[in-house]
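Protocol step 6 of 9: fold each sequence in the batch and record its C-alpha cells directly after the sequence line. For illustration, a two-sequence batch is reproduced in full.

Sequence one:
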Amino acid sequence: MECTMERSRGETTPVTTGAGGLAGSSEVKGVVTQTQDPLKVAAVLGDPTRYRIYQYILQSERGSVTAQEIARRFGLHPNVARMHLTKLADIGLLTTRAEKTGRGGRPVHTYSPTGQAVSVTVPARDYRLLSDLLSEALAHMGEEALPVLTQAGRAYGRRMAQEALQTLTEDSPRPSPRQLLEATARRLGAHGVGVEVVTGSDGDVSLVFSNCGFQEIALRRPEYVCHLCQGMVQGVAEECLPAARVHAEASLPRGDRRCVYSVPTRVPARLGGQVWVD
C-alpha cells in the first residue's frame, strides 16, 4: 500500500503554547492548575537533560518512573537524577509517592506526571482564560457545536498531514499510510504530545496518545475536545485514506489511561491522481 501526493507549497500553521495570568490556582474537576513564577519555570525547563527526562516520563508506559530508572536511561548518577525529578516536582509537573518493595528496607520513591501544565510567555498572555471562555461559548451552542469542531479538527489534521507528506516525499516518492501517521506523530511529539503508531492483529493501525495536549479544557468539556481531536486524526487519515473512518476506542478525559484512535488502512484511496489499494 502506498500514498502519493502532488508537490505543492506547504501551508504553515502557527502553533502557540503557554499561558500567562495572575499568580494563583483554580480547580477543574479535581485537577488543580496554577500559574508559576516564570523565572523559576524557565530555569527548571531550560535544562535540556531535565526537559528530555520530563518528555520521557510523559511517554512512559507505566506512567511513573524511579530515580534509578532515570539514572540508567540518561547515564546519570542516581542523586543527579533525583535532583532533576525533584525540580520538576517543585514546579508542579510531577508528583511523588513512596512505594514499599515488599523486600524490606526503605521504600522506593516513584514520580509520575500531575497532568498540570506550566508555561511562560513574554509578554504575558492568558491563553488558558481564552480557552475557558471559548469552551463556555461552545457550551451555549450545545450539540450544534459538534460538527463545527469536527470540521475544524479535520482541516487542521489535513494541513498537518500535508506538511508531513512534503517532508516524507523528499526521501521516498511513495510513502505508505503508516509512514504518514508516524511522521504526523513525530510532529505532534515536537509539541509535547506523546503519541505512538501501533499495528493491530487485523493489520489496521491506531494512534495511541499517552497524554492530552488540551487536558485542562478536556476534563471540563470532553464532549467538545474529543470531537476536535477525533476530527484531527480523521483529517490526517483522509489525506491518504479518504474512505477510512476513524474510531475513538479510548479517551483520557473520560477516564481511560490512553486516547486511542483506530485508523482502517485496508481501504482504497485516491490522492494526487493516484489510486492504490492493499
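Sequence two, same batch, same settings:
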Amino acid sequence: MVAAGKQRAGGWRGQIEGKGKKKRKGKNGLQKKRGIQKKRTQKKEEKRRVQKKRRAQKRRGTGEKWTTEEERNTEEKNTEERREEYRRREEHEENAVRKRSGTQRKSRTRRKCGEEEEKNTEEEQNTKKMG
C-alpha cells in the first residue's frame, strides 16, 4: 500500500523522507525574494569596495584616511556639535567669572565703609564655599 499522502500530488510526503509539504512558490514571491537578495548583495559589494579602498590607502601610507560620503557627513556634523558645545562651555565660564568678579567688587566697597561689614562678607563667602 502506498503511504497515505503520496497519492495526493504535492501533499504530505511521508515521514520516511523527513520533509514536510513542499510549498509551491508563485512568480510574485520569487520576484520579491530576488529583489531582496539583490539589495543584500549590493550592500555587501559596496562594503567590500569600501574595505578595499581603505586597505589600499593604508598600504600606500598616505596621511588622510579614505572615507565614504556618509561617514564624512556624520563626521562634519559631530565636529560641529563639538564646536557648539565648546562655545557654550566657554560662554558659561565667562559668565561665571563675571558673576564672581561682581561679588568681589561688592565686598571691596563694603570694606571701605567699615570693619564690621567686612567680617560679615567673610562669613558670607565661607558659607557660599561650604554650600
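Proceed to step 7 once all outputs are recorded. Observation for sequence two: The chain has a mean pLDDT of 72.
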